């Protein structure tokens, strides 16, 4: 199992699933027909089942302790668990949305977009950019504070000069 989950084919297929899932989530809009809604719900269910299987494979291959030692795995596992909560709430409400909590849980579907963060793990150039941004964040904060002070000073100056 460990050989399968560490293979590049498995990783690339999961990345493809993440990208396709993102496209499917982006297809939702206000005036969906019943057929479109059913198709999108079916596709979301398929992707959720794919990610549940991936979670299970990862847990069987490397174990729970090693799985939670990586931050990106915690993010993936949390998104899968939220999807399972959404499934459970849909089953309790009978799919009709009769519970008000179901509508609240459905909002959690937007957190599935966080799966795109998995792409950061796969793209080495993006990892370099993120590490540079992290290292320069403290310097950026000083520049932002300096700009804020300048805006405040010019606001006071404008109020003094142009305010009757």
Taking the sheet with the most strands, its summary is:
none
Q: What fold name stands as the CATH topology of the largest domain? A: Four Helix Bundle (Hemerythrin (Met), subunit A)
Number of strands: 0
Q: Any idea how many domains? A: 2
CATH superfamily of the largest domain: Voltage-gated potassium channels. Chain C
Low-confidence stretches: none
* SSE run: HHHHHHHH
**Share in helix:** over 70%
CATH architecture of the largest domain: Up-down Bundle
CATH hierarchy, class of the largest domain: Mainly Alpha
Tally of helical segments: 8
Properties at a glance:
8 helices; mainly alpha; Four Helix Bundle (Hemerythrin (Met), subunit A); extended; 164 residues
Q: Which helices and strands occur, and which strands form pairs?
A:
Blueprint: H1 2-6, H2 8-26, H3 34-62, H4 64-67, H5 71-93, H6 100-107, H7 118-122, H8 124-162
Describe this structure in words.
- Helices cover 80% and strands 0% of the residues.
- The protein has helices at 2-6, 8-26, 34-62, 64-67, 71-93, 100-107, 118-122, 124-162.
- The chain is mainly α and 164 residues long.
- The protein has eight helices and no strands.
- The protein folds into two domains: 2-122, Up-down Bundle (Four Helix Bundle (Hemerythrin (Met), subunit A)), CATH 1.20.120; 123-164.
């Amino acid at each position: 199992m460990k050989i399968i989950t560490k293979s590049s084919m498995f990783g690339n297929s999961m990345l493809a699933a993440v990208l396709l899932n993102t496209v499917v989530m982006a297809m939702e809009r206000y005036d969906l027909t019943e057929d479109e809604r059913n198709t999108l719900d079916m596709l979301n269910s398929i992707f959720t089942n794919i990610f549940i299987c991936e979670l299970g494979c990862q847990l069987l291959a490397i174990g729970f302790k090693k799985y939670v030692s990586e931050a990106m795995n915690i993010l993936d596992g949390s998104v899968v668990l939220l999807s399972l909560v959404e499934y459970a709430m849909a089953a309790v409400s009978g799919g009709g949305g009769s519970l008000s909590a179901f509508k609240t849980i459905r909002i959690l579907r937007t957190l599935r977009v966080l799966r795109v963060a998995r792409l950061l793990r796969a793209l080495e150039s993006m990892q370099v950019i993120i590490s540079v941004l992290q290292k320069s964040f403290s310097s950026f904060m000083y520049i932002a504070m300096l700009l804020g002070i300048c805006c405040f000073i010019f606001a006071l100056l404008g109020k003094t000069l142009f305010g009757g």
